[in-house]
Design goal:
mainly alpha, 3 helices
Length: 84
């Protein structure tokens, strides 16, 4: 275990994507911040963050929460009204 200073930050995420991430954190028994740190550290090294069983769980969570986003939507999501 290493010790590092963490900074509280506010980020805006698409609603269904946030639900998937929260569900995945629960599935993996992690906090949302630990999950996001792990995803980001893997991404910064161009390494896959998830094994096949986790990817299957993500697909199921995306169906449950109606998240139809994929990597082609990156940098193309505009803010909208809640419920739109």
């Amino acid at each position: 275990m290493i010790t590092r200073q963490r900074t509280q930050t506010g980020v805006r995420l698409e609603s269904s994507l946030l639900k998937v991430l929260k569900g995945l954190a629960e599935y993996k028994d992690l906090s949302l911040s630990d999950l996001l740190e792990g995803i980001l550290l893997h991404a910064l090294e161009n390494k896959p963050a998830f094994a096949d069983d986790t990817l299957a769980a993500i697909a199921q969570l995306k169906r449950i929460y109606g998240c139809d986003l994929d990597s082609t939507h990156a940098h193309r999501i505009a803010d909208g009204q809640a419920g739109s």
